[in-house]
Request: fold
Amino acid sequence: MIGYQSTLLGRTEVAEGTMAFQFEKPKGFVFKAGQYIDLTLLDSQPGSSTGVTHTFSIASCPSDEEILVTTRMRNTLFKQALSTLPIGSGARIEGPMGSFSLHNNTARPAVFLAGGIGITPFLSMVSHATAEKLRHPIVLFYANRYLEDAAFIDALWKLERANPRFRFVPTLTRTANNNGGWKGKTGYISSEMLSTQIGTLRGPIYYIAGPPTMVAATRRTLSEVGVDEDDIRTEEFAGY
Reply:
């Protein structure tokens, strides 16, 4: 595994309780959209998580000059250290790893199914497809409980406007507080929602990323409507 030195450049809140962190992209670091890294903090307080490693999907496009990672801010030693790490502090990146990347056959549509923080590899993949003008038809279903939980939703709407082959279908699973006047889809990603949006369910290649329970339920939904197991690819975000 190749290790690279990096530096924290900035942090941004991208949804309620969700932060994005920008790291310097090391010279020679090349990755495919959808891959992940192991991140180790080097400059944190004594007794904190210095030397502890955490795995993150890369949210940025491979052509970007920075590496963007995103996480729900839980009360763990690593995440507390990351949230207070001074800008300019050092980090170690190992990777890239993983095979959760867009297939090569542009004749087969891609259907992305994201739950919560599972949006990160898909943001990278859609950004890359848009920047490179890839010919894959892509539909992204993105489920969150509430609108304020939906990280990068504005960036994804912008990508839909920029890419005629990309369609964005966000859905909210809870509708309390009116969700700021939300007029989009509601409910969990179901076979009915999928068939309404994409028609024939056999044919695309499906990519699922999110909490383990969401991944398992969505895989089960696809299997029940006859999608071949070989056409389903998954990435679980346990503990995010």
